[in-house]
Amino acid sequence: MKKILIVEDDRTLCVELSNLLEKSGYEVEIIRDFTDAYAQMEASDADLVLLDISLPGENGEALLQKYRKSNDTPVIMLTSRTEDMDQVLSMSYGADDYITKPYNPTILLLRISAVLKRTAKAVQTEMYKDIRVSFVKGSLVRGDEERILTKNEMVIFQVLFDRQGEIVSRDDLMTALWDNDEYINDNALSVNISRLRNKLAELGVSDAIETRKKLGYILR
Questions:
Q1: Distance CA 193, CA 179 (A)
Q2: pLDDT of 129-146, one tens digit each?
Q3: What is the CATH number of the domain that holds 186?
Q4: Do 66 and 116 belong to one domain?
């Protein structure tokens, strides 16, 4: 049974959400004390978080931004506001979806189901040396330092990571990028690898990707 954490200060809405989710086969956990909501989010073993933007103390966007530094649990933002900027900020901070209140129960359940299915297909996190790699968010984190990878950079890194210690040809990398519905030429591949190297170097791993002339690349 999947567990959903509700972070919402409207008690009436919490009850409605809880009843809806439990009737739909989910286990529910509710945060009721917002003096340290972030610590409670971190401590929860929920499979998905429903996070309201307007909360007492830290707002939902601030909580999401902090939460994403150490946790890849999918998050759907809830808000009664309809400004485009709220949606833009929420998604840029790592939200997996966004829904406005009053919500349609059927649509909310469909969104929850879709997000759970989508995120279940991906490995949440792996460690490369002392860097935490989030394949869902597309980020590299070492201590308090984080680097966000582009879609192409993440594809390249994942191929190299999955075959760590092996030589990966440029053709293999180009094929992976092509299969990812991204057109990329030989020069663009070099640029993406260079940028990936720089981001790894900024996190203290300057010799991560070695070039083997005429053969390809190897992740050390």
A1: 18
A2: 999 998 877 899 999 899
A3: 1.10.10.10
A4: yes
